[in-house]
Amino acid sequence: MSHPSPKHEPTFPEYGSYREAGRITTLLRKETVGGILLVIAAAVAIIWANSPWSDAYVALRDFEIGYEPWHLELSLGTWAADGLLAIFFFLVGLELKREFVEGDLRNFRSAIVPITAAAGGVLVPALIYTAIASQRPELHHGWAIPTATDIAFAVAVLAIIGSHLPPALRIFLLTLAVVDDLLAISIIALFYTDHIEVVPLVLAIAVIAVYAVVAQRFRVFFSRHAAAAWCILLPVGIVAWALMHASGIHATIAGVLLGFAIPVLHRREVRDEALGTPGLAEEFEHRFRPISAGFAVPVFAFFAAGVPIGGVDGLRDAFTHPLTFAIVIALVVGKPIGILTSTWVMTKVLRARLDPELRWIDMVGVGLLAGIGFTVSLLIAELTFAPGTQEHDIAKVAILSASVVAAILASLLLGSRNRRYRRIAQREAVDADDDGIPDVYQSAG
Q: Given pLDDT bands bounded at 50, 70 and 90, which one contains residue 273?
């Protein structure tokens, strides 16, 4: 990967800047910890929900708390799905904003490949699900379940198998997952909203607009006085979330919009980092990332993954149900096909070629990692099928099964490529001019 191609023959994936690669590496390291906690929380929930003490799990999940006059007396499971996941989607919005301002999405040529890959990774699984479930009208509404990618679970798999996946592929995977999450949350807003209360929605949009104006207007002040940002912006954000919840649109939408409203300084702008003062986006990401990865997402997984399987008979019924086939095949097969095909087509359109150090089998591995749906897939399953129905439980069993199968296949494939990845890593570390920046990032521009 250290041999740049001629200008008339650009390569894919691109390296970007050394600073961006370092930021992505740090971010994924935090997501790795969160992914491991997520898996542990889900495993505990499954074991508890199928133990003699399952009634205690159900009672805990369904325990209601909150202020009823504001329609916020919700079960703990609902608080996790509507409230805690809003933190996760806030970071999705923030990361998306950063990608547009200073990441791979800032210019068309770099952005079009991961955007197209994400679109293919949404469209193909949805089509496969629809085709398999076409004879069961009650299942049609679940077409969006296999469209999501769980980046935390995916990078946890990379950490567990010790994969040395090249930074360019890691950046591509993260960018793809962020765009994928945006598409998933857009699908939730458009197709999983039963009714809309106009007044709360208008007020929510107005409050988010105020939030954006205040954050932009006082971004320098907030960057230097983090406590003020928390005292002013956090309450405004909570009001926006409550109004969005009251509007009938899933409250996590507010999280994405609030994250996207945070100002991000362009790399060419003067920063206060030399004075030890991070920007507002850096401050919020630093504070919210541990909360999301270490608490919000694992707690959601704990309440969402606890499915009563019903022993051998229950497993047999689940694994022979059309819904299981639809979800598993769509995630494990549809995701890699959609991502690989759309990426190949786009590289042909752009007249680019895959980096000579990589092979298309590496992209298959990335596609399999993207087939780990989990968090957002579980959220869509919650919105699709009513709790207590057979389809609700089977959908969750299918999501868990598909995520495990995709993780195993990705581990086997990428693990077999580790020797090559180590050689690439050694070449990428070369810094012949001893300026602190590996030469490959300088030759890549």
A: very low
* Higher per-residue pLDDT: 215 or 18: 215
CATH code at 379?
A: 1.20.1530.10
The model carries a pTM of: 0.85
| Distance between CA atoms of residues 72 and 61, nearest Å | 16
Report the 10 Å Cβ neighbour count for 5: 12
Range of the domain at 244: 17-424
Going by C-alpha positions, the residue among 361, 406, 415, 323 that lies closest to residue 149 is: 406
Q: What angle in degrees, to the nearest 10, is found between the helix axes of 167-191 and 18-49?
A: 60
6 in a domain, yes or no? no
Q: Would residue 394 count as lying in a domain?
A: yes
What pLDDT does 389 receive? 86
Q: What is the 3-state secondary structure (H, E, C) of 105-154?
A: HHCHHHHHHHHHHHHHHHHHHHHHHHHHCCCCHHHHHHCCHHHCCCHHHH
Alpha-carbon distance values, 413 to 158, 265, 328, 353, 368 (Å): 11, 39, 19, 22, 9
Beta bridge partners of 65: 74
Residue 133's φ and ψ, nearest 5 degrees, are -95, 10
Query: In which element (H, E) is residue 215 found?
Result: helix 198-217
The tally of domains found in the chain comes to 1
199: pLDDT confidence band, cut at 50, 70 and 90?
very high
Residue 114 · residue 172 · CB < 8 Å: yes
Angle at 275 between CA 264 and CA 99, to 5 degrees: 20
Residue 39, C-beta contacts closer than 8 angstroms, at least 6 positions apart: 153, 156
Looking up tokens 């970007």, which residue turns up?
16
Q: Report yes or no on 114 lying in a domain.
A: yes
- For residue 10, tell me if it sits in a domain: no
